[in-house]
Amino acid sequence: MENSATTELEQKLAHLPDKPGVYLWKDDQKRIIYVGKAVNLKNRVRSYMQSSRNHSPKVRSMVSRIADLEYIITGSEIEALILECNLIKKHRPKYNISLRDDKSYPYVKVTLNETYPRVYATRKVIKDGARYFGPYTNAGAVHETLKLLKRLFPLRTCRQLDAQRPCLQYHIKRCLAPCAGKIEPQVYGEMIKAVCLFLEGRSDDVVKSLKKRMELAADKLEFELAAQLRDQLAAVDKVREKQNIVTGSGDQDAVGLARSAVGTCVQVFFIRSGKMVGRDHFLLTNSEEEEDAKVLEAFLKQYYSQAAFLPREVLLPFDVPEQQLLSDWLSEAKGGKVAVDTPKRGTKKDLVSMASGNAARVLEEQALRLQAANERTDGALAELADYLDLETPPERIECFDISHIQGAETVASMVVFEGGQPKKEDYRRYKLLTVEGKPDDFKSMQEVVGRRYRDLTSAPLPDLIIIDGGKGQLSSALEIIRNSGLMSATVVGLAKEFEHIFKEGESDPVILPRHSQSLYLVQRIRDEAHRFAITYHRKLRSKRNMVSVLDHIPGIGEKRRKALWDHFGNLTKIKAAEVDEMAAVPGMNKPTAEAVYNFFRRKPGE
What we know:
This protein is α+β, with helices and mostly antiparallel strands. The chain has helices spanning about 5-15, 40-45, 55-65, 75-90, 140-150, 170, 185-200, 205-220, 225-240, 290-305, 325-335, 345-385, 440-455, 470-485, 515-545, 560-570, 570-575, 580-585, 590-600; strands at about 20-25, 30-40, 70-75, 100, 105-110, 120, 130-135, 250-260, 265-270, 275-285, 315, 340, 395-405, 410-420, 420, 430, 465-470, 490-495, 500-505. The chain has 19 helices and 19 strands. Strands 13, 14, 15, 16, 17, 18 and 19 form a seven-stranded mixed β-sheet that branches. It has a six-stranded mixed β-sheet with strand order 4-10-9-8-11-12. A three-stranded antiparallel β-sheet has the order 2-1-3. Helix 4 (about 75-90) packs across helix 11, helix 7 (about 185-200) runs antiparallel to helix 8 and helix 12 packs across helix 15. The longest helix has about 40 residues, at about 345-385. The protein is globular.
């Protein structure tokens, strides 16, 4: 830290108020590295600058990077807690415990700000009058929920409400056609209320509402509406049968925590009206050195600051430092009492234990996935080195592939794998020139490896080079690679049909065992090279074929063609436009507009 910056920080520390608030530690780049809350800013902030012997390694690391301080005084501790949650969510400081990728969790959005609300998935939560349900950690769960909702309720899916006649969804009874005015906003709104209740997990309330509306419709002799409500009621009942009764009544969240070498996981069970309606797990980062209670408290603050529904009771596996403050905060946010309790016995204790057990199971599955991933990478590399007689597993592998159609648009790709994983920023693609119109894969391969290895000082060099092709391709590539001076890399050819590997100077191929991790790794690399080459080839081909009909009109070049497309939007509107309309487009003039007008109105043969 510079002296001036140190002096400024010391002055701020000397004049800290003894009031509640939020403090933000910053590094020498003015980046916020930690956000904290304090009942007394003076005491809490100064504690960081005391003897480091009492600090954890994480806090010592943070303190060593502190260059500046900012603080915000609040009117109460609850206000400080709310502000702390918002700032952590906004800035995602390096040293705060945080939900992994919490900024991108999906939600179900109900657009209550529209006359006929829609229901769809989103990752953006904004204050627009809509209701958001979530967060969900699994995007698949969101889509399953939406699929179920569309089965239970005939919701509109179209974005516009100006249709002349209903679409197919109306005729197969999956939509009430608000776009064509087939249903009143009030009736549709009643259905949306039921949707919101269902998303809250209140299926009992949904059933009561549907029964009441069905009976009312029958009394008014509105038998078609009554039949629709009856079908919805039957569908909701089927879903409700699958929900287990776990407590007598009430809305609860049972929270469990588990930790292992893999990381930290929190599991939340959602109990609504006494029934288990769902669960979700959350992985936490930057929590290794913190106590369980601190970790759980950090999770509760972040999760409930963005949760769409607050239950009447939050059940914890153990007490957290600010349990009463959390209860007061949640009660204020809900507008009703929210108890944050640590049950000691009975059904509630069993629920929390079950949640913790499920969190531990998630970490076990995570460990198994990591083990499998290691086998697919480190294990596969070691196995491949063994089969190819390499002294050490290849850290960097480069693979080349050629793509063309009868010699046209010949391209090549080079993909890179490091540590058994794709390193996409090092991928390269080449448009080949020496064989254009005359297909010759051997010369193509010589050109691409020549361009790649002509300068051996500009990039990391590979340990293993894979040429997608047999002996001929390998020989062609080896001639160029060795002449370039690259002698340290092993070069092999991969035969396309049976995935036999040909080594330099050996006539018999190496045959990797079926179902071996080394074979799967080689296949992944080869497929990735093929995909990358084909993608580039298609791009060039489509660019070549993308000749606009407007290019055949005298006076129309790239700029005027773009101007017409930008103004009219499609070819149909350009065809229908009058001369004066086209002449008014920026860059156009009357003679050119007349040429376009006449071009589309000339008769065949003219």
